[in-house]
Amino acid sequence: MLDSLSTAAAIDTINQVVQTATGGSESLFVIIMKGFSNYAIPFLLLVIPILGFAKKVKVYEAFVDGAKEGFHVAVRIIPYLVAILVAIGMFRASGAMDFFVKLLSPLTNLVGMPAETLPVALMRPLSGSGTLGLVTELMNQFGPDSFIGRLASTMFGSTETTFYVLAVYFGSVGIRRTRHAVAAGLIGDITGLLVAVLICRVVFL
Amino acid sequence: MLNYIWLALMVIAIIVGAINGRIEEVTKAAVENASTAVDISLGLIGIMALWLGVMKIAEKGGIIQILSRAIRPIARFLFPRIPKDHPAIGAMLMNIIANWLGLGNAATPLGLKAMEELQTLNKSKDTATNAMVVFLALNTASITIIPMTVIAVRAKLGSANPFEIISTAVFASTCATIAAVTAAKLMQKPRVIRRSDPDLTDRGRKKGEEDA
Q1: Are residues A37 and A127 in the same domain?
Q2: Domain, as residue range, for A25
Q3: Phi and psi based region of residue A56 (left: phi greater than 0; alpha: psi -120 to 50; beta: remaining)
Q4: Is A2 in the same domain as A44?
Q5: Would you say B124 and B202 are in contact if contact means Cβ atoms under 8 Å apart?
Q6: Phi/psi at B12 (nearest 5 deg)?
Q7: Is A62 part of any domain?
Q8: Which tens digits make up the pLDDT trace of A86-137?
Q9: Chain B: nearest CA to A154, how far in angstroms?
Q10: Shared domain check, A112 and A51
Q11: Taking a C-beta distance cutoff of 8 angstroms, is the pair B38, A114 a contact?
Q12: Given an 8 Å threshold on Cβ–Cβ distance, is A179 in contact with B62?
């Protein structure tokens, strides 16, 4: 933890130095990260076929052979994703979220979570775009560098959209009986969100 | 469990929607999201084809097997029932690395490739194996080293340091991952869940028996 904190501090310093030196809006860190994400995919698209070719794989034939599965996988996901997204969409549209926010709000004080961020926590496992919308709203209202803004951003990055992942991954191979996967995923979500509150209080307050 | 949650979401939506006078919005959301789901699925075709094609080259060239061998000790702990050096391990590793790097577009196809490999080891094709649940736990709590989307929003809203949430987000998602995997591992043990384990009882399971 100390390590990543000091890394963040170092990045902070680099940002400021570069920004004042160049007067530009893009820091060195941004440039490196952008370069990194720009080249990660081309790197794989270069290295894998070359390694395959070196191992005497008929690369074109192998590619086509693998790629033809793409359509079937995508189509197989449809019923699972329809089921999940319809239920979540209805839930969001009904305004039921407000009800749960009211129901759970006495608990937020207990863990030191600002009441404004509770909808973010409840939305996180259900909808990625929905959560991003809420986080953006909060940062717009309180500022991205406020405690609420920082906490909401951390919550967004603390876990994945569990129900979407479950629907797509299990759907792709036709698994209907998910056993303890939902419970494990939700335990991960709750942990991630609570730890987000805790660590933000330690670091930012 | 998904049965209960799915039903609960819809029942709550309709009851609360009726009370709130938002029943029309609920209907609209149902219809709209049904087609959104299809759009998302069909939108995956191209990117799926690309990565499944590349993965086939990697598989035939032995690259996935090399990756599988590289993480054998961790794999043996997380996925004890997967034969050592099985391509499922290499596919899962590639998916997890893509997730860490925030390469969302590549991560999903790689993850689905891993699911396909895991499914070849599954004796009961409609039921999740323990290995699948652990792999899903890794994915639903996924660590992202650079959560670019939220950083971009922060930058746009004029944050003095959009990146300052990286360390807190990585810390929280690491804890989430550990918790999810531990939960997945511990929950394999109780009888209720062991009963539906495809590796133990693929015969004699009553049809329509509830999943835990």
Answers
A1: no
A2: 1-57
A3: left
A4: yes
A5: yes
A6: -60, -45
A7: no
A8: 999 999 999 998 888 988 888 888 999 999 999 999 999 999 989 999 999 9
A9: 5
A10: no
A11: no
A12: no
The two three-digit tokens of residue B125, written as one number: 């094709």
Interface membership of B14 toward A (CB under 8 Å): yes
CB-CB neighbors (< 8 A) of B193 in chain A: 179-180
Query: H helices of A55-95, where?
Result: 59-67, 69-94
CB A183 within 8 A of CB B183: yes
Contact between chains at A48 and B63 (C-beta distance less than 8 A): yes
Q: How many domains does chain A have?
A: 2
A191 plus A162 within the same structural domain: yes
Amino acid at A94: S
ipTM of the complex: 0.88
pLDDT digits (tens, 9 = 90+) for B97-133: 888 877 777 889 999 999 999 999 999 999 999 999 9
**A193 and A163 in a common domain:** yes
Distance between CA atoms of residues A49 and A187, nearest Å: 40
Subunit contact A159:B184, Cβ cutoff 8 A: no
Residues in chain A: 205
Is residue A168 within 8 A of residue A77, CB to CB? The reply is yes
Interface of A with B in 130-189 (CB under 8 A): 132, 135-136, 139-140, 143-145, 149-150, 153-160, 162, 165-166, 168-170, 172-185, 187-189
Last residue of a domain, one of A38, A57, A76: A57
Q: Answer yes or no: do B61 and A69 touch at CB < 8 A.
A: no
CB A169 within 8 A of CB B112: yes
